[in-house]
Design a protein that fits this description.
Distance between the termini: 58 Å
Number of helices: 8
Radius of gyration: 50 Å
Strand order of the largest sheet: 4-3-7-6-5
Helix content: 40-55%
Shape: rod-shaped
Order of helices and strands: HEEEEEEEHHHHEHEEHEEHEE
Length: 465
């Protein structure tokens, strides 16, 4: 199974990695630009220097051409600044050559080798080794017309690379903590930007999490402020919800119409069966007919509960409402051999609900007792001060595998199709959900009966006037 990921974490990671790569690339480009700029500076400096020293190439009384050294800085200055042409680490080396490349004069170190180029009035820049094989050297040569020779001035290229490396290392040492701090700030900023950017998307996700089947006709995703990339998804989800609502409405209307159409022929059939002599076949037919009528009534109840119309919920006295329902529905159960115990009905308990739905839940539970427990079973109904109703019987109970909540439709506690349709508990749960309450089956030992708990919402405190 493919692992899921959090979009904000991925975006923050991508932003951080891209920012780090940008810093690395920018640092590399800066270093290269520095090196290239430093080379350009050295080339310009070498061209200027050879122009400045060119007049010092002269012919002596003996006719020998030589380079007359200009005055050097004091030898007290530390290397490499103790001399440009002399000292421990001279900056420049030189040669004076004729047209055939014969060296007429040279420095002790960094003297460039090679034949001269064309005779031009401007310095020519090139690279090459020194006479002693060291190098490479950055060389500038200039033709001296008066002497008919070429003056070649050189300095080491390795100095530029060393200077670049030194610059990079020193910058890293000096700015290391600043770079680390900037990276941390960058990460936190990226996370903050991503989380703020996804705020509207999280709000749309919260809206989607609140959509249920009951208020489907009123709930849609509102994502006007969400990112543009998510707008097609929001539109598609809303269109899917419209299609689901239309299909659910058609199915609900079909169930209501079919149940209404079946009521009349079933009533006529029951009247005809009642005129027949009492025998086993008539009793079985009447039983099947009652089961069909009960199924139709439950289908009608399911269709109404699934409808989009809201029930008129209002504060009411739970004790009085339960007592009223039992006064109307319990006598038939008691006269058939079951006993009923009541507790807590004398104390008013205010809850939010709807009397018709409360009666629907209690009648379904009483009907389940009549169908699934033997005569003589005791039923205990308790109304609690916290807005709950406990409905417990002493019958055989439900199988251990039966869910304690989320009751599915058409799921029975046994395999006998005549025992019921498997809709009673689903109706109870739907009715309680429409009132904003809960309907659960409390765990019990096998054979120790079944206990159902209905928890209602209690009205909030009245705001001060």
């Amino acid at each position: 199974m493919k692992r899921t990921y959090r979009l904000d974490v991925r975006l923050a990671l991508v932003v951080t990695v891209m920012s780090a790569l940008t810093l690395i690339v920018a640092g590399t480009i800066l270093t290269l630009e520095f090196a290239r700029g430093q080379f350009a500076i050295e080339e310009r400096g070498l061209s200027t220097q050879i122009r400045e020293w060119a007049p010092s190439v002269r012919s002596g009384p003996d006719g020998k051409v030589a380079f007359i050294h200009p005055p050097e800085p004091s030898s007290d200055i530390d290397a490499p600044y103790s001399g440009l042409l002399t000292g421990l680490r001279p900056v420049y080396g030189y040669t004076v050559v004729d047209v055939d490349g014969v060296v007429l004069d040279r420095s002790e170190s960094r003297a460039p080798s090679g034949r001269p180029g064309p005779a031009t009035a401007d310095p020519v820049l090139l690279s090459g080794p020194a006479l002693d094989g060291s190098g490479p050297l950055l060389i500038a040569e200039l033709y001296i017309p008066k002497a008919g020779v070429w003056f070649r001035l050189a300095r080491g290229r390795a100095d530029v690379s060393a200077l670049t490396s030194t610059f990079f290392a020193e910058s890293l040492a000096e700015l290391g903590w600043a770079a680390l701090t900037m990276t941390l700030v960058l990460i936190m900023t990226a996370v903050l930007i991503v989380r703020v950017s996804l705020h509207d998307l999280r709000r749309v996700a919260a809206q989607a999490g609140q959509i249920t089947f009951d208020p489907l006709g009123h709930e849609r995703l509102v994502g006007a402020a969400a990112p543009a990339e998510v707008q097609p998804l929001i539109l598609a989800v809303n269109q899917a919800l419209d299609s689901i609502e239309a299909g659910a409405a058609a199915q609900r209307d079909f169930s209501i119409h079919a149940a209404h159409e079946l009521r009349t022929p079933l009533s006529d059939l029951k009247l005809r069966l009642e005129t027949l002599p009492h025998d086993v076949d008539r009793h079985a037919a009447m039983r099947d007919l009652d089961a069909m009528a009960r199924l139709i009534e439950q289908l009608l109840n399911i269709a109404r509960l699934d409808g989009a119309a809201a029930f008129a919920l209002a504060p009411l006295d739970l004790s009085e409402t339960v007592a009223q329902v039992l006064r109307e529905a319990a006598p038939r159960l008691v006269s058939a051999g079951w006993s009923l115990e009541l507790d807590g009905l004398e104390t008013p308990v205010e809850v939010t609900g709807e009397p018709t739905l409360i009666a629907l839940v209690i009648r379904n539970l009483l009907d389940n007792v009549r169908k699934h427990t033997p005569a003589g079973t005791r039923v205990n109904v308790v109304v609690s001060a916290d807005g709950a109703v406990s409905f417990r019987d002493t019958g055989p109970g439900l199988p251990r595998s039966f869910p304690v909540s989320g009751f599915s439709r058409f799921v029975r506690g046994n395999e006998d199709p005549r025992s019921g349709s498997g809709l009673g508990l689903a109706i109870c749960e739907s009715a309680m959900r429409r009132m904003g309450g809960d309907f659960i089956l409390e765990p019990a030992a096998r054979g120790m009966g079944a206990t159902f708990r209905m928890r209602f919402q209690t009205p909030g405190p009245t705001p001060p006037s």
